[in-house]
Amino acid sequence: MKITGVELAVLKSEGLYNNSAGSEEPEGPTYLGIVKVTTDAGITGYSDMETCASVAKACVDAPRWSQEEGMECFDGLATLLIGENPLEVERLWYRMYRGSIYYGRRGVAIQAISAIDIALWDICGKFYRQPIHILLGGKWRSKVRAYASTLFRPTPEAMQEAAQRYLDEGFTAVKFGWGVFGKDASRDVKLVEAAREALGGKNDLLVDTGWFVERTPKEAIRTVKSIEQFQPFLVEELLHPEDYAGYRKVADAVDTRIACGEQEATEWGFQRLIEEGGVDVLQPDLTRCGGFTVARKIVHMAERANRLVIPHSWSSDLLTAASLHLCAFLRRAEFVEFSTSQGPLSRALAKEPLRMMDGYLAVPEGPGLGIEVNDAIIDQYRIA
Q1: N-term to C-term CA, the chain
Q2: Per-residue model confidence (pLDDT) at position 62
Q3: Other beta carbons less than 10 A from residue 228's beta carbon
Q4: Is pLDDT of 24 > 70?
Q5: Which of 232-241, 277-286, 345-354, 360-369 has the lowest mean pLDDT?
Q6: Are 256 and 277 in contact (CB under 8 A)?
Q7: 115 to 97, 107, 122, 198, 262: CA distances (angstroms)
Q8: What are 234's strand-pairing partners?
Q9: What pLDDT, on a 0 to 100 scale, did the predictor assign at position 224?
């Protein structure tokens, strides 16, 4: 079996990302990339990618830089894969990484590599007629508890209303993130308190403070300590993603679990988060960290270091499905993130959208990702 095509489609939904109403749900991503890898055996692999999709498309479509063997370093990712065996995921990952190293290593290049890697694992699963979690090495569970992933509301009353709505929908855990949080310390405390009151003592509350708010480590420590009385399961994204030393200071100073990693990439980056940052929870996004090939290594590192892994998965049901496979492979899986956005790029890319039952999402059992991509939606929203 050989790879015959690597294509990245740029999708655009209606309007720009907007949450101006404050208490409304965001509609999901405005732009989204969809990677499609085809083979001469008629097997196709897919993945989404939440990045600057038009830039990622340039990484995929760029021409070959040199015909000399072993000189790959400025190459378009597609040129490195055409004619290769898609089942050799580890070798192809490194071929893409080395082949883009002079313009990549992190950022959009690794994100494009991540999505292609997921698509290759999707092909592997379909070829071997197994779900990806089996190919990763094992299935520890058939369902994963989902947390509703949403934004902070501007008032305590709106927070309570939102929290109650998610409880009514069947969630047993809710994460409120950034938005208005970080602009007024006293209001921040009131918002978290309102969420805890609505959720009660049996349901979990997660807090994403948003690193777009500039904080020193001491300010981050004060932020966490101000809301610790409300028992958040974790507090994430307190500092700039590369402030490893700052994360270490925060993690050592508070009792609450400190989480980050959705912006991190490669096994080397997550090794720094563990060893230098000392964080309690790693949050790899499969479309940013390096795909399944890297995520499997992250899981092994986390287990050796006794850290939790809760993948970031906000963009669409494609990424959520991929994250469910990773959670099935984890020996300990607390949650899978479930975006509450209802926009077309969040909910309509799968012919059968993922549905929660009793607070859990089922791990897909079909081959590969285990979901069927809705090509009509891709065609409808494609702009490049």
Answers
A1: 28
A2: 94
A3: 14
A4: no
A5: 345-354
A6: no
A7: 13, 13, 11, 38, 15
A8: 206, 257
A9: 98
Please report, as a single letter, which amino acid is at residue 243.
Answer: D
Q: Are strands 336-339 and 143-151 parallel, antiparallel or unpaired?
A: parallel
Q: Please give the radius of gyration of the chain, using alpha carbons only, rounded to the nearest integer.
A: 20
* 135-373 CATH fold: TIM Barrel (3.20.20)
Q: Do domains 3-129 and 135-373 have the same CATH topology?
A: no
| Rounded distance between C-alpha atoms, residue 33 and residue 36, angstroms | 10
Sorted by where each begins, the domain ranges of the chain are 3-129, 135-373
Query: 357 to each of 94, 146, 158, how far by Cα in Å?
Result: 39, 10, 25
Task: For 104-159, write each residue's pLDDT tens digit.
Answer: 989 999 999 999 999 999 999 999 999 999 999 999 999 999 999 999 999 999 99
Please name the fold of domain 3-129. Answer: Enolase-like; domain 1 (3.30.390)
Quote the tokens at residue 30.
Answer: 């405005």
